Amino acid sequence: MESQREPHSISLKVLRLSRPSFSEQTRLPEQPPGADLPINPSVSTDNEFKETKDFIFTPLLTQPPAFGSAYVGETFSCTLCANNELPNHSNRKISGVNITAEIQAPTQTIPLDLARVGRGDNVEVVSGDSLQQIIRFDLKEEGNHVLAVSVRYTEFLSDDVGESKSRTRTFRKLYQFIAAPCLSVRTKVSDLPLRGSKSERPSSVKAISFALEAQLENMADGPITLEKVTCSPKLSFDITSINWDVTGPGMDKMQSPFLMPRDVMQAAFLIRQKANSTVEMTKDGRVILGQLIIRWRTSMGGPGSLTTGWLSTRKRA
Questions:
Q1: Torsions phi, psi of 116, nearest 5?
Q2: Number of other CB atoms surrounding residue 40 within 10 Å
Q3: Fewer beta carbons below 10 Å: N end or C end of the chain?
């Protein structure tokens, strides 16, 4: 059995793929006339970008300095690098390098598909070279996640007489991170007054209209722009949006809501039951209405989406 203390010829590095952010600059305030220590405010900014010297952002972009935050509704991406750490004149060679990965979410374990960067499976990695593969995973659950990465390779050892022997080696590394909510969604369903006379109402339906209100709060560290908030109803209902996306004759198109951290936005929908339709009920007698579908963009254009569970309400007696 292979000794656990013997170092591996392959090392594993994991680099998260994140969008950059704008590089900021802070300009010194203007000095009053006759100041004891006059300082030119321009020394606090980059002279290469004089046209932006009075603006907080420069034309440069900054890579994230650390792992950063992971949010539900966004895509978690990273590069897995298997590096050959053998010296150039080593009597050992590496072949058959293979990387597998899985995500251990709070409720399930999901094998991941790896996108190869310029190579196939079971390749030879020479000294100083690396095998890189990319994973992408849509975060759908809050809480602790573990990225489990396994590396398998074949090591060939040549002796002084030219004979070689091989062995297969494997190791496994775990990387833990937390997926936090980007949007907090709180909903409220209210009955609307019945319309029409008793003779015009479906005999089997007593409540045919509802108002669905949703309160959306930005829980992330940075701003987001809401691209779309829709409600996908059950087949027995029609949905009417009464939000910023409503258009009509003489109406100007409204801009998508921009939410800073901890900002709250209200969304609302009218839900009407179709004529002569039968509503779907839960086992405890609640009417199933539909699901909210929310899409957003981060400040640097990163996409995010969230679909709620099935929304329901008590049927009017």
A1: -80, 145
A2: 9
A3: N
